[in-house]
């Protein structure tokens, strides 16, 4: 029997737990809580970041922020606004978050299919006390969007098809094996910190160089 298990909304708490493990930490993009100083330093270091609510799902409230020679820009769904100065961009972002706690994550340049980013969801479920991988799927962003969520028009692919079309057929087995390994390891870490979990959705991205990243872990995977 499938166990619903404990719900855990805070992305920050789950990220902090995963960062404590030396084999998982290198696969988590640098992440900070949203403050003006953190945003300024993260943009200086990375050039592109993603800001997202500490609690939220479905890509809602997820904003891409970039710094370039001509200033700053933020993109929410398909709408991009440009700013000459950091302070103007920050004020605009601050209004958009409506007082909610946000976090900032280094932006990862995902491998694409036809120029559209693709990422992955591994669904891991506990049945009769035993964890099992239920699915590894790819999510291909709708044209013009950087979020891949299906509720935002993203297209579902098998995990194998996503990897094959954005890399090569020879990459499929190794990338899926690594996702399974990180999922099992990550679940062990999370279960110790948050007993009572019953189902998890690990969100992975693969960047242009082939490195695997864990973006977040959901305790109520769709």
Automatic annotation (TrEMBL):
Gene3D superfamilies for this protein: ATP-grasp fold, A domain, ATP-grasp fold, B domain
Family annotation (InterPro entries): ATP_grasp_subdomain_1, YheC/D
PANTHER family from the UniProt entry: BETA-CITRYLGLUTAMATE SYNTHASE B-RELATED, RIBOSOMAL PROTEIN S6 MODIFICATION PROTEIN
Designated name of the protein: YheC/YheD family protein
């Amino acid at each position: 029997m499938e166990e619903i298990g404990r719900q855990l909304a805070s992305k920050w708490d789950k990220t902090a737990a995963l960062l404590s493990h030396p084999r998982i930490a290198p696969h988590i993009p640098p992440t900070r809580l949203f403050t003006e100083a953190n945003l300024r330093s993260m943009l200086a270091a990375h050039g592109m970041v993603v800001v997202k609510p500490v609690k939220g799902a479905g890509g809602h409230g997820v904003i891409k922020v970039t710094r370039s020679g001509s200033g700053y820009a933020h993109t929410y769904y398909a709408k991009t606004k440009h700013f000459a100065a950091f302070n103007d961009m920050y004020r605009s972002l601050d209004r958009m978050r409506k007082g909610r706690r946000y976090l900032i994550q280094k932006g990862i340049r995902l491998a694409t299919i036809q120029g559209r980013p693709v990422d992955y969801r591994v669904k891991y479920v506990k049945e009769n006390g035993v964890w099992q991988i239920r699915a590894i799927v790819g999510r291909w962003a709708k044209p013009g969007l950087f979020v891949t969520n299906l509720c935002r028009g993203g297209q579902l692919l098998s995990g194998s098809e996503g990897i094959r079309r954005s890399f090569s057929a020879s990459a499929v087995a190794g990338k899926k094996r690594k996702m399974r390994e990180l999922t099992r390891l990550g679940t062990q870490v999370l279960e110790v910190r948050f007993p009572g979990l019953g189902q998890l959705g690990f969100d992975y991205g693969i960047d242009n160089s082939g490195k695997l990243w864990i973006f977040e872990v959901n305790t109520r995977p769709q």
